[in-house]
Design goal:
Blueprint lengths: L1 H19 L8 H11 L3 H14 L14 H15 L3 H27 L2 H9 L3 H40 L2 H9 L1
Helix pairs in contact: 1-2, 1-4, 1-7, 2-3, 2-4, 3-5, 4-5, 4-7, 5-7, 5-8
Amino acid sequence: MQAALMVGLVLAVLWLIEKLGGTPMVIRPIVVSPIVGFVLGDLQSGILIGATLELIFMGAIQIGAAVPPDVLVGAGLGTAFAILSGKGPEVALALALPIAILAQSLKVIVFIVRSWFMDFAMKLASEANIKGLVTLNFAGLLLQCLMYFIVAFVAITFGSSAVETFVAGIPKTVMNGLVVA
Protein backbone atom coordinates (compact mmCIF):
# COMPACT_ATOMS: atom_id res chain seq x y z
CA MET A 1 0.00 0.00 0.00
CA GLN A 2 2.86 2.38 0.81
CA ALA A 3 4.50 1.64 -2.54
CA ALA A 4 1.22 2.36 -4.35
CA LEU A 5 0.84 5.64 -2.49
CA MET A 6 4.42 6.73 -3.19
CA VAL A 7 4.37 5.86 -6.90
CA GLY A 8 0.96 7.51 -7.30
CA LEU A 9 2.26 10.69 -5.70
CA VAL A 10 5.40 10.65 -7.85
CA LEU A 11 3.39 10.40 -11.07
CA ALA A 12 0.89 13.09 -10.02
CA VAL A 13 3.60 15.53 -8.90
CA LEU A 14 5.72 14.97 -12.01
CA TRP A 15 2.69 15.63 -14.22
CA LEU A 16 1.98 18.86 -12.34
CA ILE A 17 5.62 19.97 -12.64
CA GLU A 18 5.55 19.14 -16.35
CA LYS A 19 2.50 21.29 -17.00
CA LEU A 20 3.33 24.18 -14.68
CA GLY A 21 7.01 24.24 -15.61
CA GLY A 22 6.64 24.84 -19.34
CA THR A 23 7.34 21.23 -20.36
CA PRO A 24 10.75 20.62 -18.77
CA MET A 25 10.52 16.94 -19.87
CA VAL A 26 10.35 15.53 -16.33
CA ILE A 27 7.82 12.93 -17.47
CA ARG A 28 10.42 11.10 -19.56
CA PRO A 29 11.49 7.59 -18.46
CA ILE A 30 15.06 8.78 -17.87
CA VAL A 31 13.66 10.99 -15.06
CA VAL A 32 10.58 9.04 -13.93
CA SER A 33 12.18 5.62 -13.46
CA PRO A 34 15.05 6.74 -11.21
CA ILE A 35 12.60 8.69 -9.01
CA VAL A 36 10.29 5.67 -8.79
CA GLY A 37 13.32 3.48 -8.07
CA PHE A 38 14.42 5.87 -5.33
CA VAL A 39 11.04 5.92 -3.55
CA LEU A 40 10.88 2.11 -3.79
CA GLY A 41 14.40 1.75 -2.38
CA ASP A 42 16.19 0.63 -5.56
CA LEU A 43 17.69 3.67 -7.26
CA GLN A 44 20.18 1.59 -9.27
CA SER A 45 17.41 -0.44 -10.93
CA GLY A 46 15.46 2.77 -11.51
CA ILE A 47 18.38 4.32 -13.36
CA LEU A 48 18.96 1.21 -15.48
CA ILE A 49 15.26 0.83 -16.29
CA GLY A 50 14.91 4.55 -17.04
CA ALA A 51 17.75 4.52 -19.55
CA THR A 52 16.36 1.40 -21.20
CA LEU A 53 12.79 2.69 -21.42
CA GLU A 54 13.95 6.06 -22.72
CA LEU A 55 15.28 4.26 -25.79
CA ILE A 56 11.87 2.62 -26.30
CA PHE A 57 9.85 5.83 -25.83
CA MET A 58 12.30 8.25 -27.43
CA GLY A 59 9.87 9.40 -30.14
CA ALA A 60 6.74 9.43 -27.99
CA ILE A 61 6.08 13.15 -27.64
CA GLN A 62 2.70 14.86 -27.84
CA ILE A 63 2.55 17.21 -30.80
CA GLY A 64 -0.67 19.06 -31.50
CA ALA A 65 -3.74 16.89 -31.13
CA ALA A 66 -1.80 13.60 -31.34
CA VAL A 67 -1.94 11.58 -28.12
CA PRO A 68 1.02 9.17 -27.99
CA PRO A 69 1.33 6.32 -25.50
CA ASP A 70 1.58 7.80 -22.01
CA VAL A 71 5.28 7.54 -21.16
CA LEU A 72 4.79 8.79 -17.61
CA VAL A 73 2.48 5.92 -16.66
CA GLY A 74 4.35 3.37 -18.77
CA ALA A 75 7.72 4.23 -17.23
CA GLY A 76 6.37 4.70 -13.71
CA LEU A 77 4.39 1.48 -13.52
CA GLY A 78 6.83 -0.54 -15.62
CA THR A 79 9.61 0.45 -13.23
CA ALA A 80 7.49 -0.13 -10.14
CA PHE A 81 6.38 -3.59 -11.24
CA ALA A 82 9.94 -4.53 -12.23
CA ILE A 83 11.29 -3.50 -8.83
CA LEU A 84 8.39 -4.85 -6.75
CA SER A 85 8.43 -8.22 -8.53
CA GLY A 86 12.22 -8.45 -8.30
CA LYS A 87 12.37 -9.63 -11.92
CA GLY A 88 14.45 -6.75 -13.28
CA PRO A 89 14.45 -4.52 -16.35
CA GLU A 90 13.06 -7.13 -18.73
CA VAL A 91 9.74 -6.93 -16.85
CA ALA A 92 9.71 -3.17 -17.33
CA LEU A 93 10.34 -3.68 -21.05
CA ALA A 94 7.54 -6.22 -21.32
CA LEU A 95 5.00 -4.11 -19.43
CA ALA A 96 5.79 -0.46 -20.13
CA LEU A 97 4.40 -0.17 -23.67
CA PRO A 98 1.09 -2.01 -23.04
CA ILE A 99 0.59 0.04 -19.87
CA ALA A 100 1.41 3.26 -21.75
CA ILE A 101 -1.10 2.44 -24.49
CA LEU A 102 -3.82 1.73 -21.91
CA ALA A 103 -3.01 4.99 -20.11
CA GLN A 104 -3.23 6.79 -23.44
CA SER A 105 -6.91 5.83 -23.60
CA LEU A 106 -7.50 7.04 -20.05
CA LYS A 107 -5.80 10.31 -20.88
CA VAL A 108 -8.15 10.83 -23.83
CA ILE A 109 -11.10 10.30 -21.47
CA VAL A 110 -9.73 12.97 -19.12
CA PHE A 111 -9.29 15.30 -22.13
CA ILE A 112 -12.94 14.73 -23.01
CA VAL A 113 -14.01 15.51 -19.44
CA ARG A 114 -11.84 18.65 -19.47
CA SER A 115 -13.50 19.74 -22.72
CA TRP A 116 -16.73 20.08 -20.72
CA PHE A 117 -15.01 23.01 -18.98
CA MET A 118 -14.97 25.00 -22.24
CA ASP A 119 -18.44 26.55 -21.99
CA PHE A 120 -17.68 27.69 -18.47
CA ALA A 121 -14.29 29.01 -19.62
CA MET A 122 -15.98 31.00 -22.38
CA LYS A 123 -18.38 32.50 -19.87
CA LEU A 124 -15.50 33.44 -17.57
CA ALA A 125 -13.56 34.95 -20.48
CA SER A 126 -16.54 37.03 -21.63
CA GLU A 127 -16.76 38.41 -18.09
CA ALA A 128 -12.97 39.05 -18.03
CA ASN A 129 -12.79 36.85 -14.92
CA ILE A 130 -9.07 36.08 -14.91
CA LYS A 131 -9.10 34.56 -11.42
CA GLY A 132 -11.88 32.21 -12.48
CA LEU A 133 -9.98 31.17 -15.61
CA VAL A 134 -6.82 30.48 -13.62
CA THR A 135 -8.82 28.48 -11.07
CA LEU A 136 -10.53 26.51 -13.83
CA ASN A 137 -7.18 25.76 -15.46
CA PHE A 138 -5.76 24.50 -12.16
CA ALA A 139 -8.88 22.39 -11.63
CA GLY A 140 -8.23 20.68 -14.98
CA LEU A 141 -4.59 20.11 -14.09
CA LEU A 142 -5.54 18.68 -10.71
CA LEU A 143 -8.07 16.39 -12.42
CA GLN A 144 -5.26 14.97 -14.54
CA CYS A 145 -2.99 14.66 -11.50
CA LEU A 146 -5.77 12.76 -9.76
CA MET A 147 -6.07 10.44 -12.78
CA TYR A 148 -2.35 9.65 -12.62
CA PHE A 149 -2.47 9.06 -8.89
CA ILE A 150 -5.52 6.77 -9.10
CA VAL A 151 -4.13 4.76 -12.02
CA ALA A 152 -0.82 4.16 -10.25
CA PHE A 153 -2.39 3.48 -6.86
CA VAL A 154 -4.97 1.01 -8.19
CA ALA A 155 -2.53 -0.72 -10.54
CA ILE A 156 0.06 -1.32 -7.83
CA THR A 157 -2.44 -2.14 -5.08
CA PHE A 158 -4.56 -4.59 -7.05
CA GLY A 159 -2.45 -5.40 -10.08
CA SER A 160 0.82 -6.67 -8.68
CA SER A 161 -0.40 -10.26 -8.39
CA ALA A 162 -1.91 -10.07 -11.88
CA VAL A 163 1.35 -8.67 -13.21
CA GLU A 164 3.36 -11.43 -11.55
CA THR A 165 1.04 -14.02 -13.11
CA PHE A 166 1.42 -12.33 -16.50
CA VAL A 167 5.22 -12.18 -16.19
CA ALA A 168 5.38 -15.83 -15.11
CA GLY A 169 3.44 -16.71 -18.28
CA ILE A 170 5.90 -15.00 -20.63
CA PRO A 171 7.95 -17.66 -22.41
CA LYS A 172 11.57 -17.87 -21.28
CA THR A 173 12.82 -17.24 -24.81
CA VAL A 174 10.91 -13.93 -24.96
CA MET A 175 12.29 -12.86 -21.57
CA ASN A 176 15.81 -13.84 -22.70
CA GLY A 177 15.31 -11.76 -25.85
CA LEU A 178 14.27 -8.77 -23.74
CA VAL A 179 17.35 -9.18 -21.55
CA VAL A 180 19.58 -9.23 -24.63
CA ALA A 181 17.78 -6.21 -26.14
